[in-house]
Amino acid sequence: MDALSSGSCQELPVRTTQDIHPDLEPDMASSESAGQDNKPTESHAEQSEAEDNHAEPECVTIDWAEAKKKKKKKKKKRSNRPKSKRGKNKPTGFEEYYVDAPITPEEYANEQEIYDVRMEDAILRYQKNRRIESERREVFLKYLQYGGVDIGPKMFSGLDQRELNGLDSEQILLARGQTSIAQERSDLTIDFNAVVKGYLTSYFPFYFNPENDDMVKLATVTIRNFLSYLLYHDVVPEYKDNIDAARTSCDIATQELWKNQQFTSKGPGDFNTACSTLFGGVFYDHYVEDDQWSNSKDDTVRMTNEVARKVVKFALAGAGTDRQAFKFQELANGNALRAMRVEDIDGFEVTDIIFPDAETKEFYQVHAGDLHPIGRLLGKVYRDPGKPEIDLSPDERGEWVQGPAPAGEFEFFLEENLLRLCYPGMKVLTSVWELNCGVHYFDEILNTYCSIYTVLCNDLMIGWKEPKTLHEIGGEEEDETDEDEGQPSKEEIGNGKPVEEVL
């Protein structure tokens, strides 16, 4: 074994067919051996051993080191094309630092002639110059539809390949376009900023319900990219300032939309939940001792009354004023604590945020390490312009008309992790309650809007068609009847009569 593993050459005896069958001719022996290469040799074992004594073995040299070498696999030739040209990783035009390539004076002059006609041409060329994926396309087309652009295939615009071969690139682009602007809307004044604010702050969160920050940026970056395209190509120079304002609105929405989604899902916080559980609100009487009436399909952990009392007491002791704490203790000892809901409002608008100071954090760490430190959130009355007006009596309505509507300011206690999601101008739709000790709390959060929240009627006009009177519908039916008189019916054509004869 040592000699074999050393890699040196060894001489081994090898018997030929001529040695085994000496009476055969050389040609026959070679052909026979060729035909029996794949057959078993056990049947000739005895004969081979007998004749092996009379024939001298032939020595063949075998290089064991060479036999151990494995054949190398041939490497596949890599494509010379970069990854950006292979399909999936191809640039989309929506990268963070992407800019359109410089244009020549001739191209600029040509674009001025094109864009001077209609905004529709700019939309078609923008879609042609960007690789818009399915999710991004859906967001972008909804934005166009919200702004009054008709989306979908054009009527009577289907062309086969033979017809397309006879058109130039400009005509093919117009023929294959999926967006168009109705003639009666082409002369209307455009407000890019209002459309952006209405779409991103009102329509987009409700229709798409973004689940993460990437989904929010998908919408804001796409719309901002389109607005930048309009500025770069000087499509509508008279709206330059308005487009700049719309781009700023996209930046604001990028920062605020995802905070709104998180605040809605994580709110209203421990303190407000505790007050709602103890004094009145959505969580009042939801918890049953020992959880005897728990829903097997609802795994939500409900706050017990004991925990709720602890949360409220430590919040008033750590973040409340001395007057609020003494008043609360006095009413609680006399079992006189009451809560009243603030009427004629839809929620509150955030005006200021006060985070817990170092002293408050130390107080919680020493005396209640299992609770979150409490800060304060200042707000004012908010009424949603997108909702119906408040139902008032004639006398109350007259007071509102003669003077300003009732207003108020609130001070809420809120945990630090939720305070980081708030910002001045945030609108929170919820019910607000006031304790008779001067403390306010809010209930379950229904919705949260941005600081640039704008309500438009554009979403109501999506898919709208101009109505027709019954007289017009009847007239059309009569006209169709008159035109059909004297024409062959389907039954007559199907009875075997030639078309030419019937006509």
Automatic annotation (TrEMBL):
Q: Where is the composition biased (Basic residues)?
A: 68-89
Biased composition, class Basic and acidic residues, residue ranges: 39-57, 487-503
**What Pfam families does the database record attribute to this sequence?**
Arb1
Quote the biased-composition stretches of kind Acidic residues, using this chain's numbering.
475-486
Superkingdom of this protein's organism = Eukaryota
Identify the stretch(es) annotated as Disordered. Answer: 1-93, 471-503
Composition-biased stretches (Polar residues): 1-17
Q: Identify the GO cellular component terms for this protein.
A: ARC complex
The GO biological-process annotations, alphabetized, read as:
regulatory ncRNA-mediated gene silencing
Q: What is this protein called?
A: Argonaute complex, subunit Arb1
